[in-house]
User: Fold this.
Amino acid sequence: MSNEAANRALAEALFAALERMDWPAVAELFTEDGTYQDMPFETDSGGTVGHAGIIGKLEVGLSMLERFEMGVTDIWVSGDNVLVERVEVWHHPDGTVASLPVLCRLQIRDNKIAHWREYWDYNYLIAQQPDSWLPQSPRPRWD
Assistant:
């Protein structure tokens, strides 16, 4: 398998584990010092570092979901850089369904993910979420 094919397979494994909501399996795909960064958050400027941090961050934002779909539409690989375009579908226990277009960049080192950066629209996501999801997060009001 070529390096680019292996990097594509690693990205596919990441999104399969996310869809299963298997946070430890997600973390195992990262280097020990791997980072996960949600770019819409100014407070996330350095990203979350390490397996335990990545698991914790995923649990805070996603563990209350009934189901989490990864609608991957495209994967582009250039050397150790992978871009993935997808639409996430968030299924809440109260029946609320939210969708979120996302572009992410993965940087691969030694067959593991070293950096994971997510680019998405905070207001678009939060406006679709029930008030019970991260209640401390400010909600846009467009009325």
Notes: The radius of gyration is 15 Å. The first helix runs from residue 3 to 20.
